[in-house]
Amino acid sequence: IDFVLSYVDDKDGEKKQERRREFEANLEKAGLELETEDKSESDDGKTYFLKIHAPWEVLATYADVLKIKVPFKASDIPHSQDVPLEWISKPFRLPEHIMHPEPDYFTSPFDKGKIDFFLINDKDTFFPPSTRNRIVYYILARCPYFKEDRKDKDKKGIKRLLSNGTYTAAFPLHDCRYWKRARNAECESERYNLYKHWARFLCFYKEQPLNLIRKYYGEKIGIYFAWLGFYTEMLFFAAVMGLICFAYGALSYDDNVTSREICDPNIGGSIVMCPLCDKKCSFWKLSSTCLSSWNLKHSSDNIATYILLLLLVLTLFLEFWKRRQARLAYEWDLVDFEEEQQQLQIRPEFEAKCTDKRLNRITQEMEPYLPLTSKCVRFCVSGATVIFWLSLIVACIIGVIAYRLAVFAAFASIMKDSPTTKIQLVGSLITPQLATSVTASCINFVIIMILNFFYERVAIWITDLEIPKTHLEYENKLTTKMFMFQFVNYYSSCFYVAFFKGKFVGYPGNYSYMFGNERRLRNEECDPGGCLIELTTQLVIVMAGKQVWGNIQEAFLMCNWWVSRKGRQQPENQYSRWEQDHDLQNFSQLGLFYEYLEMVIQFGFITLFVASFPLAPLLALCNNILEIRVDAWKFTTQFRRPVASKARNIGAWQEILNVVAILSVVTNAFIMAFTSDMIPRLVYLYTSGQGSSMTGYINNSLSIYSISKIPSDSMPDEGVSPAWFNNSVITTCRYRDYRYPPGHEKEYSHTMQFWHILAAKMAFIIVMEHVVFVVKFFVAWIIPDVPSEVKARIKRERYLIQEYLHNYEVEKLKLQLSTSFIVEPNTENCTELCTSTDKHEVLSECL
After folding, report:
1. What number of other Cβ atoms are within 10 A of residue 361's Cβ?
2. Where does the sequence pass through the membrane (predicted)?
3. At what angle do helices 652-670 and 591-608 cross, to 10 degrees?
């Protein structure tokens, strides 16, 4: 059974019955064999099952149409030698019968007229199940459900029949139950092997049986799991470096002079800071931020080295993945696949909606096309829709910023200094900035999840509106739009905290306000420990929240698994294979798309903002180790068997990863220069005359303002200021900036140190970007995308295939001539020669 369709009779089903009759009649005309299982024999007593079988003639015909490559001769190209010290990786390897190593064959596109050229031992097993269900689905997707004399010839394809309820499901069958082997010894138990050796979490340290995954699910799903495994291996090295960096910062806490000065009651305790908001915020002491200042160490000397190493690992990951991908494309016979897919596999929706025809220059056949005017109109509508929804994200972010500004004063008035030491400790842990950042991040995450719900549908709608010609073009367009939405949706709040918050504050007496001075929403400042703390908070909440939301969705699958356990208590003859698969969840055509999207968004989090949270790769590693096995478990136990499809690479995701990797160099350079205190600390270190000591840096980084010059609108209300504040004694307050003090001839204008630091920041960005980009492109240049061994094998194989095809044609021509040759001798010698019983001698000599 190559495919199964299910349907349920309902009272208003006359039109559906007519569609089914015409559709099934046309399927039989195409050569498929159909068998209907009556509802009385089904487990629920109301579902009909239409079982479809593709005989040899149909498979051969469409394998020729689709140019499916099949073996014709065992390969005689020697394999490379085994890697030395293979015993080291032995504990991580799976048995040979599970890894499913296949003999290496020369392959060629199937030609029905050259059946004797191919290695056909058994016609029933010559095409594997994945190829068979791909051929049957190709027929189902293009089979009409109208009579030949009717005009509505756009009504065709199983997709439309599923959408209008004519059929309830369409799926290929799994080969057996996953929890035990098939009773029939001749029946393959590939699903059982996948479940036992791949989908169980206890196998997390084992390699993935990629060949078996590819054979059972098709190349497209095989490529996904190969990429996910390779990406997880990269995360291991990045996580180790991040853990070392974090541990170094934690262990060297006592050496952090900056933190010690902030926490010192004689230094940080004597520095009075200006209010952080109008009216509701009081004057405060710098020592109240003792704990949060610990983050400063992570933005100092060791983080730069870590960033450079991480970006190098990312570069190596992308380059080595290209090599791994090229090797898989060769081993899985996908080297020339993309061109075939572009030319042959036109989407049924494109054929149905595009009534205009024109000649294809390549195939020299008439094919549907979309006129330029219609294409431009659709593109403009699509572009306007994208701009509108991206603007909606920006509007939501502005709303969250307004929330932050509005509630900060409320938190500040609640969290006043208390004479009780215990409450002071709690207040130092939960500052108004931290409370505002956490609540705003949670609200932002909820908005992200809500917008994601709409973005998925909007992206699909506008991609359908553009009517892409091929499946590959459809997926690439949808991928680009969806990632654009997700990129702005997930990262915009992080970009705000990293690059905009605290940069447009002004100074006491001349503060900047959002929406104008009348609204009195004063632009917020960074936490005294730096904006990196808030960026880390934002990053952790969004990453962790996304993971929790994913776990909730997995929990629903677990519930479905618990319900589906009823099948284990029923014998096979009462609970048939097609009924078991019908009760599973459908794996949509975009199912793999969402898996890629989840991982690429995670890749962006750990690369774009890793300067703020070196442990992000470690969290991603732990998540991905679990993700591989959870995805394997879902594919093996919870989803119907997907229709096999081919793909030679990860498609548009490859370019997206490259763009994210390049952008991460820029973002991390700006984070280190403008968000962290690394550059100001280095400038002070080399210009203060203190040698290698950072003593006095805190006092140097804070400017002075006269309290008497603070406008009344910005002064704290009565009763807000703490008990220790006495305005007759304390006449000045400090703020984060480099400005001249009161009484100076350039009062409150920027000092020369400000411009030195700004120049150092710009120089650092330019140098870092150039160094990283030079290293990146040099590494990309010295590491070829396709290994030389693979290139040589591809060229050798193509040469041998042409030679074998040539010899086959010559032999076939000789055989045809020998059976039909008629000799009319003119001489005695020729008469004697041409009457020889050796036909080959006749051909070679007499001719």
Report:
1. 6
2. 224-251, 303-321, 387-414, 434-455, 482-500, 599-621, 656-675, 762-783
3. 20
In the predicted model, is pLDDT for residue 8 greater than 70? yes
Whether 584 is in a domain gets the answer: no
- In the three-class reduction of DSSP (H, G, I as helix; E, B as strand; rest coil), residue 468 is classed as coil
- 367 strand-pairing partners: 358
Instruction: Name the strands in the sheet holding 33-37, side by side, starting at the edge strand that comes first in the sequence.
Output: 33-37, 47-53, 3-8, 169-171
Signed CA dihedral, 763, 767, 770, 772: sign only: negative
Helix (H) or strand (E) holding 31: none
Q: How would you write 530-573 as a 3-class SS string? A: CHHHHHHHHHHHHHHHHHHHHHHHHHHHHHHHHHHHHHHHCCCC
Do residues 363 and 229 share a domain?
Answer: yes
Backbone angles phi, psi at 777, to 5 degrees: -75, -30
Asked if residue 827 is part of any domain, the answer here is yes
Domain-ending residue, one of 745, 771, 786? 786
Count of CB atoms within 10 A of residue 338's CB?
A: 16
pLDDT score of 425: 39
How many structural domains are present in the chain? 3
The residue type of 555 is: A
Task: Identify whether residues 136 and 278 lie together within a single domain.
Answer: no
Whether the CA torsion 405, 406, 411, 413 is positive or negative: it is positive
- What was the pLDDT predicted at 522? 79
- Based on the domain organization, do 163 and 253 belong to the same domain? no
Give the Cα separation of 386 and 366 in Å (integer). Answer: 34
Orientation angle between helical segments 219-251 and 591-608, nearest 10 degrees: 20
Q: Residue type for 312, please?
A: L
CA distances from 238 to 308, 314, 378 (A): 11, 8, 43
Q: Checking phi first, is residue 279 left (phi over 0); if not, alpha (psi -120 to 50) or beta?
A: left
User: What is the four-CA torsion angle of 239, 243, 244, 246, rounded to 10 degrees?
Assistant: 140
Residue written as token pair 């057996």: 176
| Residue 812 belongs to domain spanning | 789-846
| Tokens matching residue 116 | 């004797």
Are 540 and 652 found together in one domain?
yes
d(CA 467, CA 460): 11
The pTM score is 0.83
Question: Three-state SS for 751?
Answer: coil
Residue 223, C-beta contacts closer than 8 angstroms, at least 6 positions apart: 325, 328, 647, 648, 649, 650
Cβ contacts of 397 within 8 Å, gap of 6 or more: 444, 492, 493, 496
How far apart are the C-alpha atoms of 116 and 72, rounded to whole Å?
9
Q: Which pLDDT value is given to residue 431?
A: 67
Task: Quickly tell me which residue has 């208003």 as its tokens.
Answer: 12
pLDDT in tens, 601-636: 889 888 888 777 778 888 889 888 988 998 899 899
**Within a domain: residue 821?**
yes
Same domain, 127 and 144: yes
Q: In the structure, what pLDDT confidence band is assigned to residue 232 with cuts at 50, 70 and 90?
A: very high
Cβ–Cβ contacts within 10 Å for residue 350, how many? 19
Measure the CA–CA gap between 117 and 108, rounded to whole angstroms: 10
Tokens of 206: 């084992």
- How is the chain split among helix, strand and coil, in percent rounded to 5? 60, 10, 30
Are 550 and 435 found together in one domain?
yes
Contact call for residues 303 and 245 (beta carbons, < 8 A): yes
Per-residue model confidence as pLDDT tens digits over 554-613: 666 655 655 555 555 565 656 788 888 888 888 877 778 888 988 898 898 888 887 777
CA distances (Å), origin 671, targets 32, 180, 305, 523: 62, 54, 14, 20
228 in the same domain as 166: no
Task: Mark 561-592 as b/e (b = at least 16 C-beta within 10 Å).
Answer: eeeeeebeeeeeeebbbbbbbbbbeebeeeeb
